[in-house]
Amino acid sequence: MNWTIAIPEIVLSISGLFILLFGVVQKKENAFFSCTILSVAAFITVGFLALTMPPGGGYLGLFISDNFSRFMKFLIILGGLLSVVLSLDYNEGNNTNQFEFPVLIIFSTVGAMIMTSACNLMTLYMGLELSSLALYILCSFDRDNVFSTESGVKYFVLGSLASGLLLYGMSLLYGFSGGLGFDDIQRVLTTNSQHSAGFVIGLVFVLIGLCFKISAVPFHMWTPDVYQGAPTSVTTFLSTVPKFATFAVLLRIMTTSSGFTHQWQILIEVIAILSIVIGSIGAIAQINIKRMMAYSSIAHMGYALIGLATGTAAGVSAALIYLASYLFMNVGTFAVIIAMRRKGRFVESIHDLAGLGKTDSALAVAMAIFMFSMAGVPPLAGFFGKFLVFGAAISAHLMWLAVIGIVASIIGAFFYLRIVKIMYFDQSVESFDQHSLSLSFVSFGMGIVTVGFCLFMRPIMVYGFMAATSLIKM
Amino acid sequence: MTVILFYVFAAILIVSAVMVVSARNSVHAALFLVLAFCNAAGLFLIAGAEFLAIMLITIYAGAVMILFLFVVMTMNTNLVQAREGVQRYMPLGLLVAGVLVFELVMVALNYKIDPKIIDVVSQPNLKAIPNTTALGSAIYTHYILLFQISGLVLLVAMIGAIVLTLRHRPINRRQNITRQHMREPVQTLEMKSVNLNQGVEENGGFLRPKDSYYGIAEKDSFGPSPGDKMDITEKRQKGE
Fold it and tell me: What topology does CATH give the domain B1-83?
């Protein structure tokens, strides 16, 4: 049995256990800082390990490692790492600096990594539960805050419902295909030309369960409340890592059931269009910047789903590049949101940003870059993601999908540019507090990556295409 | 012989299951549930699943039912109140039960396994290895990855329960375990030989422990700080 195939997951879990133990036995008053630094080190180590994993399967068909899982794991680990770095500042300011925080982030990341490598329904479910359970706790981590508790409870109740739907779908798939592995499902799909209704219902239930996790539209209601209530460092994590993992699972299942692409396409197209339109329109009415980012993330997932709907290698690689660009601009925006602080209190209204261009020009420039990038303005990261996704949709003859996407992205540009207008043209209120070095580091670094995305385009496209072909061939 | 045993177990199982829902006393209902579990375990034994039988008795009859009995006895649940709606909801309940019975009959009459699936499903050869061994190899060899992940899930649940509920209030009285283990009898006790026919008063009144509780209390958890030698009662006597 080739157990070394899961070395990154094993190392990250063991570091999580070690950090937990360290936090419990050490004598200092508060171990949050040292545990966070240790988990940053663990994330960096595991990031390198994940990049060097050879392709192959292991654990008797439960676990797979290929170019695709390597690409997604790298994004996931990067997301976990950046959220932990942001928590250094946020959780100190918010008085939620318990050492369990980085440990829970680590375990949630482990679950997400297992999901990307799952090629069996049971592995998928276990990874999903590990990732989600840690997230439910993280959402209500600020337990004295009513909003945080509310967000934890809402996410828990709705997440359990989605898990139930997912399990129900899995049981139907198991009953009608006789196996839990993705290859068993594929075998049934390719040998039987006539698919039984139970099998189709099972697939749809699995799709619903996964769409809940990426907050695609008919299942997006939880997103604004949970994003607003959760501590901002958790919101950063929530908007990146579990979404990437679920997206990886969606891609893997969909390319596995390739005999079924046509039926899938209709579903994914409808979900993608609804997500883009409702995400873009819903964000216009939001005053709270975290709620606005929630709707923005719904729309972004819709754009990435367009790449999935094409079902071609070009479309899948476009979706992967879209997710990569989304990671950088999203984390950067949340770094700026965490820096929004007056007299030690966090403020979240978009009008609190008024006059930021005069009071803190560096922060304002970074925020403007992220907003322009999210709107899809040319030389920035977000433009390339959208460009590739729409290009793939047009070459797959999904013309109307691309047209709706472009129209909705123009609607979406309104609320991103409104932030820029508020920062530079509105009367300034009080300036924000001096923000810490870690925040400057993250917002500056993400800003550089967002601006210079075109310079890395070639290697990113090569890796994205390698990942996509390893999946489509499978 | 096994047929007779099967019918005996099955009959007791059904009777005790009916008694669980109809017993007036909730403790009796819980005990009937234990009886039902034991008979179900007997059925498992007849089917050759000895491991499941033992698990059913140890986990359900042993652990879960004890917890359940604790709850029933401490909560003082009022069954009469819970039964109030029985008359009103009876027709609806009967309807649902009828639908379920109909479905069960339909399934039993039209039961058919897809012949293609039989090739896909792998079944262990139960004649060659006992089912405990088969389960062990499935859990600890074949699905070791999933087994370990479930361990992590439970650990995360535990961390969550502690993080979200534990509060370090100053009123919580906690011991400093190391100091408690390190201290000697001499530090706390003073041995006195008391003469016959003498009471406490003749021997100079009550003695307090030399090093009282907060000597070994965790910092901030009880009374004055650990360095402070003064007892609370001592302060009270001095009128502070």
Answer: Four Helix Bundle (Hemerythrin (Met), subunit A) (1.20.120)
